[in-house]
Amino acid sequence: MSEEKDQEQPGGTSRGEFLKDDLTVEKTATLEGSPKAIRLMVNGVTYELTEGSEVKPNHTLLHTIRETLHLTGTKISCDYGWCGRCVVLIDGKPALSCLLLTMECVGKNITTIEGLSSGGKLHPVQQAFVDHSALQCGICTPSQILQIKALLEKNPNPTEDQIREAISPTICRCGGPYKLVAEAILDMAKEEGKNG
Ligand code: FES
Ligand code: FES
């Protein structure tokens, strides 16, 4: 794997089980010719990955992000589209990374939770979660933060209902600090409004 800074910007069987059965894929790639490089843009960095080994046709984006790029802020939980804890942003919109094939994401702008902070400073949404202790174990937190970031891009002054709706696809196994999350974001929006 090589990486380079992008100059323009940044039901049943689980996916994990499915991915173990990939020997046939590797053989096919070898027989069909030299492996190609594919480029994946994550958090403003373009990663050059080898098709057929680092990225196989059956690899999910979740698998690639965690196992190949080692960006483990994106959480793996159900691995089949039920829990909503593996959210990333694809071209700014929330998506379940366990349901996307990596090859489908070539040419897209992918943002994971690691891409939000800048210069050692947390993103305002991350800071609001910290300031309001709006999390328990934190497994659902990266997804919620990204869902709220996407909401705020469209609507900088959401209502509590809109905040709750934005994070509703992500199931919190700790009982859900949903009220604290809503309070955190409402307070943050109010402060940002005051500061212009
Ligand atoms: S891990 Fe993707 S929805 Fe549960
Ligand atoms: S805080 Fe633990 S899963 Fe939500």
Characteristic terms for this protein:
7 helices; globular; binds FE2/S2 (inorganic) cluster; Ubiquitin-like (UB roll); six-stranded mixed β-sheet; alpha+beta; DNA polymerase, domain 1; 196 residues
What's the short version?
This protein is of the alpha+beta class. The protein is 36% helix and 14% strand. A six-stranded mixed sheet has the order 1-3-2-6-4-5, with helices on one face.
How would you characterize this protein structure?
The chain has two domains: 3-115, Roll (Ubiquitin-like (UB roll)); 124-195, [2Fe-2S]-binding domain (DNA polymerase, domain 1, Orthogonal Bundle). The chain has 196 residues and is α+β, with helices and mostly antiparallel strands. Strands 1-3-2-6-4-5 form a six-stranded mixed β-sheet, with helices on one face. The protein is built from seven helices and six strands. The structure holds FE2/S2 (inorganic) cluster (FES) (2 copies). The site of one FE2/S2 (inorganic) cluster has 12 residues, from loops.
